[in-house]
Amino acid sequence: MTVPGARFGYRGYVASRPILGSRAPQHVQNLVLRDYCSQRGLHYLLSATEYVYPSCYLMLEQALDELPKIEGIVAYSLFMLPRARARRAAIFARVLESGGTMHFAVEQLSCATPADVARLEDIFRVQYAIVDQPPAALVAGRP
What we know:
five-stranded mixed β-sheet; Rossmann fold; alpha/beta; 5 strands; 5 helices
């Protein structure tokens, strides 16, 4: 029996485009989400699958719109989020303002507080600082 107005479950969020240049089949992403939720006692709701178009976040926006009715979102990876910091900040703000949480299964991280947001932003920026380096710059002492 559910209580009227109660929030229930965590919407999955998977990708149909590469994440940091690599692809994971959607069924594998969903298995990772189910395992993550099972280990943490989170009720997993079927996943929203993002469109393949670059910089498209329609399905994420739809999941965010559900936050008044669900406990949160479980994304396959932190690096599915927009690269633009302002867009990420808006997403994190919506999650926090809703009183929900957002989880990132591959990284085994979650976002429920402003301190979590700061930590996730640090991780995001470090990852892209590495990704954006020319290959020669990654090898010390090499031209």
